[in-house]
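Tokens as discussed.
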């Protein structure tokens, strides 16, 4: 028995006939093969998140949210009716599917999201949020690659009928049936999609997200959390003023002063001329053994920089308006410091000090993680400060940079004074205290801080006063100077 013939363009990649052939059922078409390859990445990432769908479904809904309307065309394939007639109920399901696509395209969320130019990670999270009701109970193994060769996409629309007929389409029919049954739920999710979170992450830039599946999990948690929306709205009030203060940074290399001595390293233009007097063999030896002489210039001393640690209270006493203010302030302050070239690490605490975000590094503010983090381990400030002192000691042993710690909590943070002194010995300490109505900050170690700010209940109640207080705190905290290691 002869082996089945692979459709043209899929030789060597037999797994492509399944997902690419299903695109015959698509109701959204793009003029660029790049968008099909981009949709393949969404499809693969969705499978890793446990949302197993046919490629055409991720392709169509993803394009409605990721691409401006002028770059796509909403229409069925001209051969879809003929090809779908071979499968039971597939023609009726395909017609119903196109109606659902038209309803999704008319939603305000899809129209606004298409103008935001979402990144791939954000599109994956949106698709996981909207299409989770249609996912298979058991996610199948993804056999085909998530990056499709452009050679396989050449003339794809004309080859789709052959690709579609190469395999049975029971899985596509099951997915369309599940979508039809969950139509109202999917449309409700489309109408309630939190576009403010997407807009905020777009303002912060790609550095606000980690890479890969870790970022997508954080983003999905942020989109699914009602409490995160309040943090997003508050952050959107603060960030326009923060981003206006962006300072352009550039790097370069230039001489500082004139020649000041002779050394073994340098560029060819600073080589001592007498080196050319050696014969060829000796010159080659001196060059290989780094024994040549170069004029050296004066060199400006390098500044080690600073490391900023934002430590945020995530205990139950910081719920509600306190939590919104603390997390929105942390995002704004972290972005402000990042724009000035400083490295920022964000950590939460309750009865323990949590690790910084695993995907966080220099020039990255994990906004989605900050919005969705939950701490449920009680409260123990003394233990937190002891752990903080230990970790700062270890950090100081191998990192020459000066340390600044920003503490965001409420006025009842009672910590033994010796522990505060130990932290203060290792780093500058700036506190932000959110007090209840009519309350005041009465801490025995308040005088050990390099600076502090107090936010009362009345300020949190008024929108303009709250934003003004946060902006003032960000400006004050960002100016905390470290001329040297604290004594």
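Sequence:
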């Amino acid at each position: 028995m002869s082996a089945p013939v692979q459709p043209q363009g899929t030789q060597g990649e037999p797994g492509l006939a399944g997902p690419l052939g299903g695109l015959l059922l698509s109701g959204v078409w793009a003029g660029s093969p790049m968008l099909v390859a981009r949709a393949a990445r969404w499809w693969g990432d969705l499978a890793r998140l446990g949302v197993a769908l046919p490629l055409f479904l991720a392709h169509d809904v993803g394009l409605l949210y990721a691409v401006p309307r002028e770059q796509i065309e909403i229409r069925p394939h001209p051969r879809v009716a003929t090809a779908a007639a071979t499968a039971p109920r597939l023609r009726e399901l395909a017609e119903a599917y196109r109606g659902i696509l038209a309803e999704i395209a008319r939603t305000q969320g899809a129209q606004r999201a298409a103008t935001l130019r979402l990144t791939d990670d954000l599109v994956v999270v949106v698709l996981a949020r909207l299409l989770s009701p249609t996912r298979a109970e058991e996610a199948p193994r993804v056999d085909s690659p998530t990056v499709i060769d452009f050679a396989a996409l050449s003339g794809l629309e004309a080859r789709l009928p052959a690709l579609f007929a190469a395999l049975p389409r029971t899985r596509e029919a099951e997915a369309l049936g599940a979508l039809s049954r969950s139509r109202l739920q999917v449309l409700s999710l489309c109408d309630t999609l939190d576009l403010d979170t997407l807009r905020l992450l777009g303002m912060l830039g790609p550095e606000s997200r980690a890479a890969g599946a870790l970022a997508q999990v954080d983003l999905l948690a942020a989109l699914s959390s009602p409490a995160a929306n309040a943090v997003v709205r508050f952050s959107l009030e603060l960030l326009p003023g923060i981003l206006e203060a962006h300072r352009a940074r550039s790097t370069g290399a230039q001489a500082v002063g004139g020649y000041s001595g002779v050394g073994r390293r340098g560029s060819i233009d600073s080589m001592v001329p007498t080196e050319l007097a050696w014969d060829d063999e000796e010159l080659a030896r001196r060059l290989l053994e780094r024994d040549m002489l170069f004029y050296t210039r004066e060199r400006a001393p390098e500044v080690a920089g600073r490391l900023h640690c934002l430590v945020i209270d995530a205990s139950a006493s910081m719920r509600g308006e306190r939590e919104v203010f603390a997390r929105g302030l942390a995002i704004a302050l972290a972005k402000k410091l990042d724009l000035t070239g400083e490295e920022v690490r964000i950590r939460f605490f309750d009865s323990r000090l949590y690790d910084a975000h695993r995907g966080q590094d220099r020039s990255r503010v994990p906004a989605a993680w900050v919005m969705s983090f939950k701490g449920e381990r009680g409260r123990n400030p003394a233990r937190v400060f002891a752990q903080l002192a230990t970790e700062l000691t270890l950090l100081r042993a191998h990192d020459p940079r000066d340390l600044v710690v920003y503490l965001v909590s409420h006025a009842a943070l009672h910590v033994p004074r010796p522990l505060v002194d130990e932290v203060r010995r290792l780093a500058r300490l700036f506190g932000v205290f959110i007090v209840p109505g009519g309350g005041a900050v009465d801490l025995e170690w308040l005088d050990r801080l390099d600076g502090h700010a107090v936010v009362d209940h009345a300020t949190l109640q008024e929108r303009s006063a709250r934003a003004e207080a946060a902006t003032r705190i960000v400006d004050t905290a960002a100016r905390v100077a470290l001329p040297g290691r604290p004594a």
